[in-house]
Amino acid sequence: MIRKISVLVVYVAVLSIFAGCGSTKPKAESWVLPKKEKADSAMLIGYIGYPNNKKENPENNKLYLSEVNFMTKDKAVYFGNGEPNIELDNNYFVVPNLKPGKYYLVSFRTGELFDQLPLYDEKYVIEVKPGQIKFFGSFDFLEYDSSFLGAHSYKFSIRKTEKPSELEMFQWLNRVGAGSGWEPAIKKRIHELGAQP
């Protein structure tokens, strides 16, 4: 009896840890953008989430994006973490203080699942210049079960979506970026997109 209770306590503890994972991401509107470290530091921003339509997401489920991995082509270690990144509670992601250069999105995590993209696929490459903030894009995450003769295989794909837009993300950065040193680049891009900061 004591052994069963011990097993149950451990099980509940583990469940509590995993249940808490969904609440650990910073809230997008109260988060503070990290300070710009160098004059030529660059940044990537973007979004990955479930589709926002009833046909593909009838229950309005929310994706738990836990990591994005951007790497340069010459990075020695492929499997593992890419550049330091932050995921917010609304699935915005920020990759701040990058060295200028070309970066590939090679993988990302949704909860505990590791989602591998084709290695150095040109569809998922972006170049950032010194001091630049670049919008990588907004993507719908589509997952499906590819079953054949009783064998189950997890499959996924991502596709570009219009929401949130680049302007929406830069306006958000403008709200959370006060005192960060990124303000000139943020305001410049908002002007280029035809809006006022």
TrEMBL record:
It comes from the Bacteria. This is Lipoprotein. The lineage of its organism: Bacteria, Pseudomonadati, Pseudomonadota, Betaproteobacteria, Nitrosomonadales.
